[in-house]
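so my prof wants the structure for this chain in the tokens format not the other one, which i didnt know existed until like an hour ago. anyway here's the sequence
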Amino acid sequence: FGGCAGEVTGGDETCDGMDEDCDGSTDEGVIGAACPLQEGVCAGSTQRCGGSGGFETCDAATYGTGYEADETLCDGLDNDCDGTVDEGCDCVSGTTQECGSSTGACERGS
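here's what i got, hopefully its the right format
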């Protein structure tokens, strides 16, 4: 016996909304290109497959939990993925600020 005439066998999956490997699932295991932002909480992010529309543009959903276009959280993380942690925060972890009133038994500290 030989192969069947007109037989279609599975191939490698691509991001196109089709089931190329004939396993009943579409676009599984397809990995997109690295997103532009790769610092901080964005490290390792890749484009997501959008099915028949191809790979999607990287956005907040792609970058995931903790991502902020403009850093507002002072949490010790680089949330806007620009390579700088907590810029614009008044008190950055590891730094000190003057505190206390130096009134009565209270003395200024840091």
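also thought this was worth mentioning. The two ends are 85 Å apart (CA to CA).
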